[in-house]
Amino acid sequence: MDQYSPGTYNLELGRVVDLLPDRSAGSFAAWLRQHPGVEIVVRDRSGLYADGARQGAPAARQAADRWHLLRNLGDAMRSAVDRHRGAVRSAARQVAGCLAEHQSDQKIKPTSEQARLTAKRTTRQDLYNEMCRLHADGMTISAIARALAVSRQKVERWLKSGGPATHDKPAQPKLLDAWSGILEQRWLDGCRNGTRLWRELRDQGVAISVTTVKRWATARRLRGAGTPEVIAATTAGRWKAPSSRRCARLLTTAPEKLDANERRFIDHLGQTAPSLIQAAILANSFTTMVGDHHDTGFEAWLEAARAGELRSFAEGIDRDAAAVRMALTDPWSTSPVEGHINRVKTIKRQMYGRAKYDLLRQRVLAAA
Known about the structure:
Layout: E1 7-10, E2 15-19, H1 25-34, E3 40-43, H2 47-56, E4 61-64, H3 66-82, H4 85-104, H5 112-136, H6 141-148, H7 152-161, H8 180-188, H9 194-203, H10 210-223, H11 228-238, H12 244-251, H13 260-272, H14 274-292, H15 298-306, H16 311-319, H17 321-329, H18 338-350, H19 357-367
Parallel strand pairs: 3-4
Antiparallel strand pairs: 1-2
Helix pairs in contact: 1-2, 3-12, 3-14, 4-11, 4-13, 6-7, 9-10, 13-14, 14-15, 15-16
């Protein structure tokens, strides 16, 4: 059965046997009374289907669907994480701090333009070194030029000046020199956006292009790229506190499947919120029971869950203990029904606003 497509499905025969007129315990109970002999009812965690099964087939055993159990467990883990958002944010900040310390020991990566200029200077210096070697070997200027495929004038000029020309331009007065103090102060105040800085200068009557201010901001950012403050701000932006869903997934994932930063995050979280680590251990134990189809240690697990972050999930299992235990030990599941549920939904959408329950039921049963 499905809460959006109420119907009955025979798991042994592998087909839909009927479609109910509504989603209520009364309709399900009435159908069961009309079809005596049902021994096992596999259902989701909805209470109305449990009530309907008890009313219509009191002798039948009920089994909870395993997928819905695991989904409820995931919801419980996310709720537990929500109750410790402060600890999650604190652990994420510590990870960002560790990244900042690690990055501060590394060299600042040059920009593509800086890398291009460095490579060009290296090539020119290597060429000059080769000129010097050949000249020391007694080769003439013309022979050196032919050997290196350069002009004779270049060989003469470089050998005479003691190296390749650097082409360094003399310092020129810049447009922003008069306003550099204001820009520097705003930068230290935390304003690192070039466009915003340009707007502030424009509001003060400074006639300058936004490109010039952006270029200044880029250069200033590179100068301060190695400071701990800038590194911490950058790494914090790259390692934000995970969402509740992602945090729950990290908590329940084997450590060897996490990267270094994720493991560091879990370690810090365990120091500030150890109850979350215990909840993750319990969640993994329950997942193992579901996957391995056994209920060994189920009572002990339930007692531990009642005392921790998974209390609400444990209370729900208490109310449905027999069906949950049967889900752990028996092979029955609603998984084979999912394709039929999608088929029923498709037929319903095709008929939207055109027909009622009677025709829908006939089409579903005909398709089955």
